[in-house]
Amino acid sequence: MDVLKRNNVVIKGKGSQVMLFAHGFGCDQNMWRLIVPAFEEKYKIVLFDHVGAGGSDLSAFVPGKYENLEGYAEDIIEIITALDMSNIIFVGHSVSALMGIIASLKSPELFKSLILVGPSPSYINDGEYEGGFTKSQIEELLESLDQNHLGWSMAMAPVIMGNPDKKEIVEELSNSFCRTDPDIAKHFARTTFLTDKRKLLPNVKTPTLILQCSDDVIAPKVVGEYMHQQIPGSKLVFMKATGHCPNLSAPEETIDEIKNFLS
Amino acid sequence: MEPKIPIDIDNLKEDFEDFFENSLCGFIISDSRGFILKANSKINGWINDTSEKVKGKKFSDLLSIGGKIYYETHLWPLLRMQGFFEEVVLELRNNSGQKLRVMVNAMERRDNNGNASFIRYTILKATDRLQYELNLQEAKKLAENELIKQREMVILREQLIAVLGHDLRNPLSAVMMAGELLQSSSNKDNAPILATLNRGTNRMLELVNNIMDFARTRLGQGIVINKKELMLEPVLQQVVDEMKIINPKREIIAHFSITEPINCDSDRIAQLLSNLLANALTHGDSNFPVSIEAVNHEGDLEIAVSNKGVPIPVELHDYLFAPFKREVSRPSQHGLGLGLYIASEIASAHNAVLSFTSTMEETRFTLHMKL
User: Fold this and answer.
1) Nearest residue on chain A to B82, judged by CA atoms?
2) Cβ-based contacts under 8 A for chains A and B
3) Is A23 a catalytic residue?
4) Does B106 touch chain A (CB under 8 A)?
């Protein structure tokens, strides 16, 4: 199978040091559109879509493989290997941060550093640990997914199709962003929100930066602090940016923090 | 009673505050991060809250947990990237935890630099519409499950047919063998009875074989052929001879001119011919002979079986090679209607074509095979 096609891999940039950007749960590589231009001069940029998202090959979606994050992490290793790259800078948003950690533990030689944007090792509160959600909240989430009460489907097609005038714009939009097959979206949500990778954190050897937003309901501040405590030698930065997607809400601040860490 | 007309109709002006506050849909204005600056009475009614309390909350705080996560991971990024989203189904959660299904449109107002200034949300109650949608989804799920169940049933039935056909063959061979033994030892008076027995068992064997082939093709195994080069004429002649024995009152005219060995599965070609002949003898006018011609020339083999009689009704032409077709115009005299289906399957397995013409003059089935 062509890994690069499967994951809709896009390569750009003028440098030789590789930066690989992994989008999180929801949407696709477009999530990095405001960040990537700032690094194109100096770095080689690798963008991709997780199988099931964006322009990936939906036929490659095997429920069993993607039942846990290891399946996704394997894909990341396969992409890096297929491109014959190593010593890369990994930038992962949301749940992809964990995929980066898993991949770095499996093939440490491939990774130079990990930049984790809004990461969380586990979303469910567990004793002392505060994940941000109670067990019953996550159960409610999974139930609402099953019953498809919400438009999780990203019956996004209609949303995007709603674009008023130009046909070519509709075409472009409907082919990108948050388009997801409803069943795959449900599956990915389940995989994401039932994940518990807290045990892995102390094993991380790769230099790590954690970017923690303020007021992020998906990955609250205490989670960022927990990650920082658990990952040896990690650097934690509290950002002014609010919400779960600083890459879209505060691109300048995000770029500055990444540049600080890399210099 | 006279309708009340406002006395001072000219002074009843639309004013924005009134429109915002008293509308049939909910309006929310938030800052660029989603913190609510203003919400109208509709929203407050749904949330059971006073305007003051809703103000300052995040828009996503008004949603059920699923909606909240959906908003943070899908909708908000979409707002940022696309500037708006439309027709998104979400659930508002009121103070006592009850959910209200709504349809939300939202847009981001941006300054000249493309930075978000604030976000406008338009929210419509959609419980009835979504109930309808849920019912549709439920019906779809039921239909899909039913389809799966039916498919499984069909496979089971076809397996049953295959097994039944197979199991019937053994006792049938025993009967046929017993018939042959009787023929050699019995006195001459029993000859007509034994001939009837022979005809009956042969026909049964043919039907059972067809059923098994049918089941096999339906179960996706197709007709298995085993090709070998051989002179085909003796094979065809034997089929004709057997048919003559079974149908002593009918005339079968055979004309063979096959000058080279043919690479084919001879048992299957014999079965094909046997099916075509049986078909011609059954449906043709019994006052006229049935003809069979088999010739090869310039790398082509043609085997044609023809008979006189009532032409095949036009409405049957499209289904002639389909399994289990029944004649509508005439009462079915014979079999399950599998003969022609199996014959055409044998033809395709040989990369050959089985076709027919049917006129007042004659009905003719032709097998055309490139060698």
Assistant:
1) A173
2) 106
3) no
4) no
Residue linked to tokens 């496979």: B155
Quick check: A213 contacting B, CB < 8 Å?
no
The answer to whether B81 faces chain A, any CB pair under 8 Å, is yes
pLDDT tens sequence for chain A (263 residues):
699 999 999 999 999 999 999 999 878 898 999 999 999 999 999 999 999 888 888 889 988 999 999 999 999 999 999 999 999 999 999 999 999 999 999 999 999 999 999 999 999 999 999 999 999 999 888 887 776 655 554 443 333 333 334 344 344 444 345 666 777 888 888 899 999 999 999 999 999 999 999 888 899 999 999 999 999 999 999 999 888 999 988 899 999 999 999 98
Q: Are A214 and A238 in contact (CB under 8 A)?
A: yes
Decide: pTM greater than 0.90.
no
Pick the catalytic residue from A56, A94, A104, A113: A94
**Best residue in A149, A163, A218, A244 to probe B by mutation, most B CBs within 10 Å?**
A149
Task: With CB atoms and an 8 Å threshold, state whether A27 touches B64.
Answer: no
Taking the Cβ of residue B86 and every Cβ of chain A, the question of whether any pair is shorter than 8 Å is answered with: yes
- Pick among B32, B81, B115 to test the A interface (most A CBs inside 10 A): B81
